[in-house]
Design brief:
The complex is a heterodimer of chains A (about 425) and B (about 90). Chain A is built from 15 helices and three strands. By secondary structure, chain A is mainly α. In chain A, helix 5 packs antiparallel against helix 12, helix 7 runs parallel beside helix 9 and helix 10 packs antiparallel against helix 11. The longest helix of chain A has about 40 residues. The N terminus and C terminus of chain A are likely disordered. Chain B has about 90 residues and is α+β, with helices and mostly antiparallel strands. Helix content of chain B is about 25%, strand content about 15%. Chain B has two helices and four strands. Chain B has a three-stranded antiparallel beta sheet, covered by helices on one side. In chain B, strand 3 and strand 4 form a beta hairpin. The longest helix of chain B has 14 residues. The chains are: A mainly alpha (about 425), B alpha+beta (about 90). Strand 1 of chain A pairs antiparallel with strand 1 of chain B, so a sheet runs across the interface. Chain B: One of its GO terms (cellular component) is extracellular space. Chain B: It comes from Danio rerio (Zebrafish).
Chain lengths: ~425, ~90
């Protein structure tokens, strides 16, 4: 305690020495330490006010710039208010169309023959549930959160649960594909394909995802923003939670939602790729092998393209929490902008999953073609407008695959009718 | 046989970890640089802790003319914050 007053005196003294000599009188009042300190504070602040009124513009600017320490992020919020609703609307329309078509085809026509089919169906459900939360976040970005704390917690938990579930299912699909290839000759999957086994697998995956969503139930709540008097749904950590704990959470999030799925996919699909290369020497048809390679490259490539930028930005922000890397307000705002953009890019993965895992598969294309023929022959108009792009995608793929095939042309003519 | 072992590892790893991923709200203001001098108590209009999603923890002090960022561990700001919480 004894050192504090002298420290403050030194600071005040140094400030006074840089200014008019008339303020030096304040330093001489040492009769009582408490009163002296208060008097110095008064002089200190009066000096600032006086300086604002003076014509010393050079010093005034230095003074003002140096003391403007609050980093206001209104610009970032304004950008989010315009950018996020547009992105969320596009993701919602495309994602609903693709995933709904997957669910419809699987439940009405296609039998779940393999474990991968079960995972793909669950993936479509998870993506649909994730997409349903987007309108709430878009409204939050524009008008703030107006539907209460319970809805805030539920929406946040739903988002996290389904995002985690999506990543887990991608890992399971790659594992199952690798396992199917490794045991292709020995047809033992009778046990693995049992109904009970599939149910257990799905329960495990969804159970893990729900557990990962529980922290949002705890931490997310509605708070009023100080400057705009607007409510917002956000994570509020207890004051007792240390900086290291927050950073650890972020690092584990990056590890479990990106690094782990990526390593699993790389391991399994590299093994599949090696097996395909070996199949070349065995005389397997080149076109079919090349198409399988293309599927693998597309799956891993899109995963990296959508998830890597977001996790890099998140890692940078985590390092900033630990080491306080950011020392400029503009850098901090640009980091927030980058986070908004890359997170929106990461969201597009749930729109691309139907294309990556279903529509480029040959069996699913055949089902779509049969379905389209059935509809066109019976004259029913059940097809929804949003489903048209998906069918067109499939048609183009079919056309590219069977360029010289007369049956391809025949299918094309059927679609045009 | 591989899949159950792998999922068992996943269960064990993830159940023992608490994660908080979700759509982050944008902090309305943050503190990056801080003042190194005290502000008289009678000049302080309000003192607010920065949102928890800011990388640095700080206190935004509002005076009649402007706003300052103060480090929470400054001795002179602690009694002001304590008084704030009692209200």
């Amino acid at each position: 305690m004894s050192s504090c007053p002298s420290g403050n005196n030194q600071q005040s003294a140094s400030l006074l020495w840089t200014a008019d000599s008339s303020f030096l009188n304040g330093v001489s009042h040492h009769k009582q330490i408490t009163m002296g300190v208060l008097l110095e504070y008064e002089h200190d602040y009066q000096y600032h006010d006086h300086d604002n009124d003076s014509n010393d513009s050079a010093y005034d600017e230095d003074y003002f710039g140096d003391l403007h320490t609050v980093c206001d992020k209104q610009e970032v919020r304004s950008f989010a208010g315009v950018f996020l609703p547009v992105i969320y609307t596009l993701a919602l329309v495309l994602g609903l169309a693709g995933n709904s078509l997957v669910v419809f085809i699987y439940l009405s026509h296609k039998r779940l023959r393999t474990l991968t089919d079960v995972f793909i169906l669950n993936l479509a459900f998870a993506d649909l549930l994730l997409l349903f939360t987007l309108p709430f976040w878009a409204a939050d970005a524009v008008n703030g959160w107006q539907i209460g704390t319970a809805a805030c917690k539920i929406t946040s938990a739903l988002y996290t649960t389904n995002f985690s579930c999506s990543m887990l299912l991608l890992s399971c699909i790659s594992i199952d594909r690798y396992r199917a290839l490794a045991k292709g000759s020995a047809h033992t999957p009778a046990r693995n394909n049992s109904r009970k086994h599939r149910i257990i697998m799905c329960l495990v995956v969804w159970g893990i995802a729900i557990v990962l969503g529980l922290p949002d139930m705890v931490f997310y709540t509605v708070r009023v923003q100080h400057s705009s008097e607007r409510y917002t749904c956000r994570a509020v950590y207890p004051h007792s939670m240390a900086r290291a704990a927050k950073a650890t959470l972020e690092i584990l999030e990056v590890s479990l939602s990106f690094i782990l799925p990526f390593l699993v996919m790389m391991f399994c699909y590299c093994r599949v790729g090696v097996a395909l290369s070996q199949a070349a020497t065995a005389g397997v048809h080149g076109g079919r092998r090349w198409r399988a390679f293309r599927v693998l490259i597309a799956v891993v490539g899109v995963f990296l393209l959508t998830q890597l930028p977001y996790n890099v930005v998140k890692l940078i922000k985590t390092l900033d929490v630990i080491y306080i890397l950011v020392t400029e307000c503009d850098v901090s705002k640009n980091l927030d902008l980058a986070n908004q953009i890359t997170e929106s890019l990461a969201l597009t993965h749930c729109c691309l999953n139907p294309v990556l895992y279903v529509f480029i598969g040959s069996s699913f294309k055949m089902h779509i073609i049969k379905l389209a023929k059935h509809w066109s022959q019976t004259g029913r108009g059940y097809r929804h407008g949003n489903e048209q792009p998906a069918i067109e995608i499939s048609l183009k793929s079919a056309t590219q695959t069977h360029t010289n095939s007369s049956s391809g042309n025949e299918d094309t003519s059927t679609f045009t009718i | 046989m591989r899949i159950p072992v792998f999922l068992l590892f996943l269960v064990f790893t993830m159940c023992s970890i608490q994660l908080v991923p979700a759509m982050p709200a944008i902090p309305e203001f943050c503190c990056i640089n801080f003042i190194d001098f005290p502000i008289p108590a009678n000049k302080i209009v309000s003192a607010v802790i920065t949102p928890s999603r800011c990388s640095s923890k700080g206190i935004m002090v509002t005076t009649p003319r402007t706003q300052f960022c103060v480090k929470p561990d400054e001795d002179w700001i602690k009694p002001i914050m304590e008084k704030q919480y009692k209200r």
